[in-house]
Amino acid sequence: MARINNDMVRGTTGKVGDNFVYKTRKGKTFISKVPDMSKVVATKQQSENRNIFAEAVQFAKELMQDPVRSAAFARKKDETLYTAAIKEYMRMHGKKSPKDSHSRILCKELAIAGLSQRQINAALFILKTGRLTNDDCRKMNAISKPTATRDLKWMADKEIIQSNGVKGAGSYYIKGSWWTGMGF
Asked: Which of these, 22, 45, 113, 118, has the minimum number of CB atoms within 10 Å of its CB?
């Protein structure tokens, strides 16, 4: 790897043709041969991660094409929609995420609806058991009672869940009208 002192290429990164790669490390620009990756065999986990990343890119592109969904998608102030969508998809479909396609599709739709990971956990719990209490929400997410109450109220306002109408002990939540339109 050779260091380059030419002002025209200082700070340049990337592949040039099929032979060379520019790299910038700690403000210094280098040029080297393109590494030969032909004999490298990806592990099963690497292949799975690459597939998930390809799905994340597809998800971000689809989201960007839909103005309604993209406007509702939660993201940080200085973050592009594309980057936020990929990060959210990867977070939702990483090692600790549901592996069956039904749950993955549901998680994707819940993320688009703006739910946090805690709220998605609650929604999946309702799907699995049919109902959810404030105590269930607190225990599964290791959160305080006021935080669980805020999460559940927000989900009820969005009609993702609905209360059984009882206040205090004996109250629980079931699927709301949002699920009907989703086919779950």
From this structure: 45
Please give, one letter per residue, the 3-state secondary structure of the chain.
Answer: CEEECCCCCCCCCEEECCCEEEEEECCEEEEEECCCCCCCCCCHHHHHHHHHHHHHHHHHHHHHHCHHHHHHCCCCCCCCHHHHHHHHHHHHCCCCCCCCHHHHHHHHHHHHCCCCHHHHHHHHHHHHHCCECHHHHHHHHCCCHHHHHHHHHHHHHCCCEEECCCCCCCCCEEECCHHHHHCC
User: Do the Cβ atoms of 104 and 98 come closer than 8 Å?
Assistant: yes
Q: 77-124, pLDDT tens digit by residue?
A: 888 888 888 887 777 776 555 555 667 777 778 877 788 888 888 888
For all residues of the chain together, what is the average pLDDT?
82
CA dist., res. 50 & res. 155, Å (int):
33
Distance, CA of 158 to CA of 118 (rounded, Å): 15
Q: How far is CA 87 from the centre of its chain?
A: 5
Please indicate, yes or no, whether the overall pTM of this predicted structure exceeds 0.70: no
Any idea how long the chain is?
184
